[in-house]
Structure formats: structure tokens, C-alpha cells
Design a protein that fits this description.
Elements lengths: L2 H8 L15 H6 L9 H78 L4 H82 L7 H11 L4 E5 L2 E2 L8 H8 L11 E3 L5
Parallel strand pairs: 1-3
Antiparallel strand pairs: 1-2
Helix pairs in contact: 3-4
The protein binds zinc ion (ZN).
The site of zinc ion has 8 residues, from loops.
């Protein structure tokens, strides 16, 4: 019979935790040569709190680059808006130039018609030329209205371009400030994370070796919530009610994992 089988036989009371192979009674510790005392609830609570603080610092470290990335997208969006307005302005100017050219061409034509009118040799010719002049003058009046409208639109669009330029500048300034702030916080946050990692490693020393693999898996899966306090007989992570037997085992210092995978501990008040 190997040690594991002996341990399983001797620690038969730990059936609830058998899913994780947890046998944290004295027999097991004796059999596998782990003579450390079972960690106190307070030690587990401290470990849980340290995990929480480490997670908060890691989150703060990860948040910086995400904020910078989001602001970069804002800058790109503002730049695209500016470019769209510049294109619109360019198009409005082209349209106004075309109308102006048309107006000048028509004016030259009218001047030419007037010269011919002065030389008209018959009433019939005079009437035809007068009619053409009238029609061209009317067309120019429409063109002048269109040019005026185009110039008004150009004014509006120029104001929009200016506004968009200011928005791009503001977004770029915000990006620069954010980047500087994030960069400035990295050394301090990194130092805090390293210090907390050490504190966590130190606090983990209370865990018997036998539960370390399951504990590591829980940390891998749940991060800072690898541990869960038991309050009112319930796992505070999954809110499952624990059996009286498990509560008794926890009170007696046994290490148990909840069916949700968290390492359970009783707060001092429980
Ligand atoms: Zn649970």
C-alpha cells in the first residue's frame, strides 16, 4: 500500500474534499512528513487579502495600456473627422470656382452680345440679340446666387475644419498626458506588485504541501478569488450552503476546497 492509499484510508473523514484530493488532517501530515500546523483562519484571510491587493495592483498596471489604446482610437477618429471636413471644404471650393468661371464666361458672352446689339442692322436681329442677353443675364443671376450660397457653405465648413483641428489637438494632448501619467505610475506599481508577490509567497508558506497543487490550480483559474471566506455557513464565492460537517471540519482546522474550487476559510467572527 502506498502512502497516498494509506492517507486516503486514514483520512476517510475528508470525503467532501476528496474531489480535490484534500486530506488535511493530522494523519495525512504525519504520513507525508508535513509537520507544519494547519494554517489558521487568520493566515488564510491574510493570504486572501494579499491576493486581492496584488490583483488590484496588476489591474492598475493593465489598465494603463488599455486607456492609452482607447485614447489612440479617439485621436484617430478625430483625425478622420478632420480629414472628412477638409475634403468637404475642398469640394465646396471646387464647386465655387466652377460657378465663378461659368459666370465670367457668361459675362464675356453678354459683353460680346451687347457689342453685336449696337451693330444690329434690323429689328429682328436686335430682338434676337436682346433675348439672348436677357437669358444670359438671368442665368448669371442664378449663378451669382449659387456662388453666394457656396461661399456661405465654405465659411461654415472652414469653421468646422477649425473646430475639428482643435478637437484633434485636444485629443492628442490628452493622449500625451495620459501616456506620461501611465509611464510615471509604472515603476511604483511594478514595485508594489513585486512586494505583494513576495508577501503572497511568504503567506503561502502556511499551506501544507499536499494542498499546494490544488491551490495553484485555484489561483490559476480564479486569481485573487482562489480563496473564499465562509459566512453564515455559505461560501462567499459561489453562495453554496456548506454541510454542518464541513463547518465542523473547518472549525477544527481542516483545509477544505468548496465544490466551486475555492480554498475555504472561516473568518475569526464565524
Ligand atoms: Zn464556493
Amino acid at each position: 500500500m502506498n502512502v497516498r492509499k494509506m492517507a486516503r484510508g486514514a483520512g476517510g473523514g475528508a470525503t467532501g474534499a476528496s474531489r480535490f484530493g484534500i486530506l488535511a488532517d493530522r494523519t495525512r501530515r504525519f504520513l507525508i512528513g508535513d509537520h507544519r500546523m494547519a494554517p489558521s483562519s487568520q493566515a488564510l484571510k491574510t493570504l486572501h487579502e494579499l491576493h486581492g491587493r496584488l490583483q488590484a495592483v496588476q489591474d492598475a498596471l493593465a489598465r494603463g495600456p488599455r486607456q492609452i489604446q482607447a485614447q489612440k482610437l479617439t485621436v484617430e477618429k478625430r483625425q478622420a473627422e478632420l480629414e472628412a471636413r477638409r475634403q468637404k471644404l475642398k469640394q465646396l471650393k471646387i464647386t465655387a470656382d466652377q460657378r465663378n468661371l461659368q459666370l465670367k464666361t457668361n459675362e464675356a458672352k453678354i459683353a460680346d452680345l451687347r457689342a453685336k446689339l449696337n451693330l444690329a442692322s434690323s429689328n429682328r436681329e436686335y430682338e434676337i440679340l436682346s433675348g439672348q442677353i436677357e437669358a444670359d443675364t438671368m442665368a448669371n443671376s442664378v449663378l451669382e446666387d449659387e456662388i453666394l450660397e457656396a461661399l456661405t457653405k465654405i465659411d461654415q465648413c472652414q469653421a468646422e475644419v477649425k473646430q475639428a483641428e482643435q478637437e484633434v489637438a485636444a485629443a492628442e494632448a490628452e493622449l500625451a498626458k495620459l501616456t506620461a501619467d501611465v509611464q510615471a505610475r509604472i515603476p511604483e506599481l511594478t514595485a508594489q506588485a513585486r512586494a505583494l508577490e513576495q508577501e503572497v509567497a511568504e503567506a503561502e508558506k502556511v499551506l501544507p504541501e499536499s494542498i499546494v497543487p490544488n491551490y495553484r490550480r485555484a489561483v490559476q483559474a480564479f486569481g485573487a478569488s482562489a480563496l473564499a471566506a465562509v459566512e453564515h455557513g455559505t461560501c462567499t464565492s459561489c453562495h453554496m450552503q456548506l454541510t454542518m460537517q464541513k463547518i465542523v471540519e473547518l472549525r477544527s482546522g481542516k483545509l477544505l476546497f468548496c465544490s466551486c474550487g475555492r480554498l475555504l476559510y472561516l473568518p475569526e467572527t464565524a
